[in-house]
Fold this protein.
Amino acid sequence: MNEFLLVGVVSSGWKAVHALVGVLFVLVGVAALAHPHNAFQTLAGLIGFFFLFKGVFDLVAAFGTKRRFDLWWLQLVVGLVEILLAFWVAGAFDRKAILLVVSVGVIALTRGITEILVAFKLLARSGGGGPPLQPA
């Protein structure tokens, strides 16, 4: 659902990418419901691919915003962790159940950190936004 919501927010070139990813997520969900016995191993493989793709993207984005954003290093660290997890997922076929649960948790965590960083970038671009914080 998040990918479809991002279509209305992002710039023109990324709209198609987010729409395509959203459609792919829906298709994979339908395929998992239709063939549940194959879904587990396929999902584990897709999570490894997702980690690799998102990790490379976060590395490129971190280096691209290095001069304009003070917290660029945090996105760099998240990208490196995602790439390391991609190789871990690809090589650990004997512990798929535990690995899948941990992977989904780490995906949620890295996604949240990335979206918080995007919020800070948007706030910095807009000039700060609201009033200064008052002590309680």
Residues 45 and 58 are 20 Å apart (CA to CA).
